[in-house]
Amino acid sequence: MSRWLLIIFLLFLGTGCGLFEKNPPPLSPPATSQRFLGTLSMVNEAGNFVLVDFGGFASPEPGAELLVRRDGREVAKLQAGTQIRRPFAAADILSGNPQAGDDVWSIAPAKDENSVPPEISAELESL
Question: Which of 4, 72, 76, 112 is a good FRET partner for 127, with 20 to 30 A between their CA atoms?
Answer without folding.
Answer: 112
